[in-house]
Amino acid sequence: VSAWRGEVRGYLLATARTVLAGYWRRRLGMEVTTIDPEAEGPGLDEPDFLSHAPARARHVLASLPERYRQILELRFLQAMTLKEAARAMDVTVGNAKVLQHRALRLAAQTPGVRS
Amino acid sequence: MTRDGRGLDRMVDALLAGDALPGGHLDLDQLGVLRAAIELRAGRPGANLPEEDFVTGLRRRLAAASSEPAQTTPSRIGRRTLLAGAAGAVAAGVVGAAVDSALRTKPPPRAAATGEIHPDDGQWVAVALTGEVAGGQVKRFATASTVGFVTEHEGSLSAVSGACTHQGCLLRLNEAAGRLDCPCHRTTFGVDGKLMLSQLATLPAALPQFQVRSRDGQVEAFLPREV
Questions:
Q1: Does residue B43 belong to the interface with chain A, where contact is any CB pair within 8 Å?
Q2: Which residues of chain A neighbour B185 with C-beta distances below 8 Å?
Q3: H-type helices in A63-112, by residue range?
Q4: Of chain B residues 125-154, which have a CB less than 8 A from chain A?
Q5: Does B21 touch chain A (CB under 8 A)?
Q6: Which of A7, A84, B43, B192 lies at 20 to 30 Å from B216 by C-alpha?
């Protein structure tokens, strides 16, 4: 068996797309996320695992008001529990929950996330 | 929160916990919220790296796959070398390259070991003109199996591997500072291969060296033979 890196990459990408589409169809009956085959990946000379995800997350967070940004950063990026995040922000757990809820709604409106 | 929002909340909780997503029905607004949550969760450091279990399992399967052809066409690289290389490559996300090299029982493109590289099946390859490295100039070279940097310092030649010892990212020559920078995790090596600075908690090893010699105005390095 022999194949070029580009061929292997194409094959893996196609597999990942199909698996992901099948997953969302079964799970929710609609496609929540997709892999765009045309999306620009790392070039052949670049590290393959360079991910654009952290930059996109930062971009979304930067557009939010301070408290919203804070709760999402603690919960999503720093993996804090609701309790820990509430303590860090000096609010009740109930408040933190509401903050997170509203922050996510606002984040969903941020351009660049919906596509 | 309405009853309708509960499905979404459960999904977001599962997402944060890394659990399987519960099923349910979402309206379009909620779908947008779930997408935003997924996008943020994907930004967590390391979220793009394969899981340890996956890498270990893949390594085992590669071992099984590579042990068969090894009997018919005896390979001169030790299996441990091959697996170490394959695991390094997988960790770097270069699954394709690893599968490829394991199936052809060919030397791994990126050696994980440190020290001097002595390929069992190697050859002298011209990597630069003597003039290109004179006076401490650094020259990048690349063959099908190897990427590296060669230079000269006070009359003696040296060549180091051009792949970071952390996860195999290709190093970039920072000419102004005379060093090799890793684009992935803020790590820098000297052109002699020694680690200069790194943000990583576990410091990566120095870059492996290649044997080098000067022949007829060319600098040659002893590199793994190409198939």
A1: yes
A2: none
A3: 66-72, 82-89, 93-109
A4: none
A5: yes
A6: B192
Give the integer Cα–Cα distance in Å for B170 and B147.
8
Say if strands B195-198 and B187-190 run parallel, antiparallel, or are unpaired.
antiparallel
Most confident of A1-5, B28-32, B64-68, B84-88: B28-32
- B140-194 pLDDT, tens digit each: 998 877 889 999 888 889 999 998 888 888 898 988 888 999 888 888 999 989 9
* Residue B141: partners with Cβ closer than 8 Å, 6 or more residues away: B127, B128, B147, B148, B149, B150, B159, B221
**A20-77 pLDDT tens trace:** 999 998 888 888 888 876 665 655 555 555 677 888 888 899 999 999 999 999 999 9
Exposure of B49 by Cβ count < 10 A (0-12 exposed, 13-18 middle, 19+ buried)? middle
Single-letter amino acid code for the residue at B62 = L
Asked if the model's pLDDT at residue B26 lies above 80, the reply is yes
Residue of A nearest to B7 (CA): A28
By C-alpha distance, the chain B residue nearest A103 is B33
Sheet strand arrangement including B147-153: B116-117, B209-210, B156-161, B147-153, B138-142
The whole-number pLDDT of residue A48 equals 56
Rounded-to-integer distance, Cα B75 and Cα B102, Å: 11
Element (DSSP H or E) covering residue B160? strand B156-161
Minimal C-alpha gap between B21 and chain A (Å): 8
Q: What is the pLDDT of residue B165?
A: 87
The sheet that has B195-198: what strands, in order across it? B172-174, B179-182, B187-190, B195-198
Beta carbons of B175 and B138 less than 8 angstroms apart: yes
The residue of chain B with its CA nearest to that of A106 is B33
